[in-house]
Specification:
13 helices; globular
Amino acid sequence: MAAEPALVDWLLETDPAVRWQVERDVLRAPEERWRATRATVPTTGFGARLLALQDEDGQWAGGAYFPAQDAGHDVEGDVDDAEGQPWTATTWSLNALRRWGVDAAALAGTAELLARNSRWEYNDAPYWNGEDDCCINGFTLANGAWLGADVDGLAEWLPAHQLEDGGWNCEWVEGSTRSSFHSTLNVIEGLLAHEELTGGSDALRHSRHRGEEYLLERHLLRRLSTGEPVGPWTAHFTYPFRWVYSALRALDHFRAAALVDGTVPDPRLADAVQLVRDARGADGRWVQDGVHAGRVWFAEDVPPGEASPWLTLIGTRVLDWWDSAQHD
């Protein structure tokens, strides 16, 4: 179903990081149009603001996953916020810039700077080596492929740490043998981004498909053992997503993966699609359910309770993808 003109106009009045995706995925505008808009992201709005906050050593906030204590940058939110982790360090900043569509050329030299200067707080390993957390390594695989870093080691590490049930769990270091919805989605997103940027490999595609099957077997919502809902967070829609799973975020991954694989939507997505559809307001918009607590450089979306351009973009393209396939 085509979005209403008033809704499209509202979406187009947003930051270029949103606007180019609206042009591509909602309007299906000619490629030269959305690429021209995308090219402005590094110099306008969110992209320009975040790029300007990069440290001389290539990092953000002086750290890999967490900011250095003496980073000394002005951020929004309580710097002593104990209720959530900070979102200002290098990994989170790279995730945002990549997802906003910033061209890697805008970060020329960053891969080399991080290789020299950034080390993980957990194990003191060099940045592009990754660490022991599956989610972090999924992010780093995608960001490294984007910036042209050598992440071949991570491309081997992630399949090697896939659990028997097909997914991943960052608690594997504590002995967990059961996969997590959160960890699995973070990893398969990283594998897909790496594949889109580099062409991937048969081994990595197989690993991604196994991870996707883990979620599909559970209809993106339920425990395989009992059929009960896996958690209320599946229906909690908030942007930025950070590391947290939701049905909306998962569906957007399956939409992107289907475009890469040349496949139609799997019928097992139907219940999650209905959940997303039910959350859409009468005006075609999705409301920000909340935000993940913690320090941020600046707000990337609206406060809780307001209509979210990011969630509306993502929800609209997910439903368009699903509905178009049902009518083909």
